[in-house]
Design goal:
The strands form four sheets. A six-stranded parallel beta sheet has the order 6-5-4-7-8-9. Strands 13-12-11-14-15-16 form a six-stranded parallel beta sheet, sandwiched between helices. It is an alpha/beta fold. It contains 27 helices and 16 strands. α4 crosses α24 and α11 crosses α13. The protein binds iron/sulfur cluster and Broken Fe4S4 cluster. Iron/sulfur cluster binds next to loops.
Amino acid sequence: MCDIHQGAHSHQTIDPAAAEMIEKANRENIETVWDRYEQQKPQCGFGDLGLCCRNCLQGPCRVNPFGEPKEGICGADADLIVARNLLRTIVGGAASHVDHTFMAVQCLKEASEGKAPYPLKGTAKIKSVAAKLGIPTQGKTDTVIAQEIARAALADFGSSTDDPMNWLKATVSPNLMETWGKLGILPKNPDREIRTAMHQTSMGVDGSPINLLLSSLKMGLVDGYAGLQMGTDVQDIIFGIPEPVKSEANLGVLSHDKVNIVVHGHMPEVSEKIVEWARKLDGEAIKAGAAGINIAGICCSGNEVLMRQGVPLAGNYLSQELAIITGAVELMVVDVQCFMPSITKVAACYHTKVVTTTPIGQLPEAEYIPFTPENADIKAQEAVRMAIAAYAKRDPSRVQIPTQKSEVWGGFSVESIVGALAKVDAANPLKPLVDNIIAGNVLGAVGVVGCNNVKIVQDQQTVEMVKDLLANNVLVVATGCTAHALAKYGFLSPAGAKKYCGEKLLAVLTAVGEAAGLGGPLPGVLHMGSCVDNARIGDLLGALAGYLGVAIKDLPVAASAPELQHEKAVSIGTWAVALGVLTHVGLVPPVLGSPIVTKVLTADVEGLTGGKFLVETDPHLAAEGMLNHIRAKRKALGI
Ligand code: SF4
Ligand code: MSK
């Protein structure tokens, strides 16, 4: 288990493995994300406040928060410019998740029709998704039901009516439908909503910051249900519902004597096939002089294959270049989202091959191996053989693999959490958790999600904040690069529960863990998966609220993105606020230029949905803010 790094690079990372690789990069004169950040300083103050507009060719315009000009050339003021920019950011995030999900739906369609080599592993999910969508299952095979599920998903994308998305209607409670219906933010066809929002924010259309903020909430729901929820449901059908699995995390998972392949990005259609063929072609690597093939993951591809295959995590967003800088990576396979364009330049300093796999995710110096659902087996073999061939070119004198790696447990889907609780109370699985919440043994729960951001010391805010939450008996669930961060310091292991959790929480985790046959406590931080897997947190909240007969906004819970970077983190956070959840962000988003937008997001929206944003850059104050919120919600519930 690593300790928090206090050395030369403590202004960049607290991860000693990352610090070691930054030093190696400096020695070898290789530029990293931190160097480029320095070159960008000072970053533009107008942009930082959200006050720069490029929405037409008369611009760029910027307004001065302290004087003149107060308006852009067309007359757009600070509130309007900030609100438009915010909605476009959320559109960017939602579009990423929705497009990712659309590709998963296409894969499900082809797989269920027997045209693509993906055996459907999530049979229980086929039944549960069919049930929520109202698809009759009696007398039908799983593949026929799966075909109907794929058609139902595509119907949402093809809808030309004004009815809300079916997937959303099938997922959420009547009280949320009512709240969102009254606000006029129930999304229709997700593609149409994305198109409309781009139109609405273009020059000379919407001049109302409040109307734009309502559209932002709606766009959060587009992400929540056409991105996260549909994506998670469909991916579980194809690849299986995750079950608890043990693995390891940090750069020390890379191997000195095996061919190292790193999967990076988000699409399990690609990463699962790479894992499958790496295992099948292990013998070829041995013939080539290696000890076999070692797979590791970066970002959410890493989370996907950890959750279902137990593949170790090499590192989160800020560590992607550092994995290559070990000199031990033969191949990095990317698909969509969060891979830096710089990786091919870093790879060119070594023998490392970079493979891109999608038509929209190209890098000029990479090898492009176009994956489709039909050809995935052939293309995965091609990529794995490229890695085996590259092994001969590895220069041992330039290999330096940090020793740090920690035990990590992944695979905590809602189904597996309920399964563990069922070992305590088979008839009423949620009862043990709810009883312990009522008794105060579990004070509440916080979902800690999102990225790394080069503006923040890597992992520091996440780690410090989560320590405070666990010590106060708050159960934490994590996804995305935050889960990687916590994995590196042992939070996702039974030992981490003993080290970091308050006594009462530890007693509950021990009782459930032992009943479930894990031989010790559950981790205090449950790894629920990738960014799209945030839908699992929504499902868990919905189940708890339903059990207690209250709304999600009444639960003693909060969400946090302590080191957010991507537009997707903003759209996920907006979905959480629409659900009624207090949502902390650890970096000031570019909205402070507008007093109206700032006030609505951090205060007024609570009157509409029950949720709001908490902006706090100090991790201890952030934890305190969420703890106060949890205590207030408990008081309101009379517990
Ligand atoms: Fe300037 Fe208005 Fe054009 Fe924006 S839309 S660039 S504020 S003129
Ligand atoms: S990968 S969106 S840096 S979590 Fe999902 Fe990590 Fe954030 Fe990308």
